[in-house]
Predict the structure.
Amino acid sequence: MRTVFLFISGLVCFLTIVFIPKALAASRYPFLVVLDAGHGGTDTGTVQYKKKKIFFEKNFSLIIAKKTAAVLRKKGIPVVLTRTKDSDLSLDSRISIANTWGKKADQALFISIHANSNQEQKVSGLETYVFKAVSNEASERLANIENGHKVVTDGTLDLILTDLVTTANYPDSVRLACSVQNEIAKGLSKKGYKIKNRGVKEALFYVLMKTNMPAILLEAGFATNPTDFSWLNQEKYHDAVSLEISSAVLKWKGGLENHRLSGTGKTGNLSQSHVASAVLKNKHSKGSRGLCSSMY
């Protein structure tokens, strides 16, 4: 009996040593996407009424996040939603969720989904943002809206320290933003939605500032523009935007894997100096897509 007991004990120890580390390793994700549906609950985001129709940004962002998650999961990509229902969720909570899951992945992405607004109804189109402490007046105004009650001051020590993290992720954030922006613009155009491509821009978004991974914020149309408003309320438009976000993520992932296989590293040819040059060119360019066109 003692011999049998010792044999079983030894077998258990062996299995523990051999298999538990593998199980722990398997619990990590090679690649993971965090989708953030902007606003929610009492924070409605932009609300617009036109032709007996009402648009809530908080509902739109959740629809797009869920549809995008469904597409990516079918492709085998793990997805985390910061919220799954119409509920209040602080910006800090969104960041915490993203960073907590990001620690469980070899590579994670953060995409915050929104709809835009402007005092001028003629302003329309699609634009995607990456974090940048210095931006133009229009970007600052939009950041103030999306940041809600969060105040971010350029001169704070917190911003300086955070910049060290965001700078490291900046090349991949720009590449992701360009991929998402261009995929959606091209995909929508093919489906008959001639939406204006307003390009990739930089702004002081709090939710992008503290995410420890490549992070972007998508503004999928202006609810204040009559044409964009009609599209933002269409299920076919929702399906198209979600499909193109997913396509962009998969292409970004594919590009990352190609860079690693070629031995060029995480960002491949997108070096810090290359990105800095692209930003400088974009700031002095009249076109709205200078940041992307100078990198590809």
The longest strand covers residues 108-116.
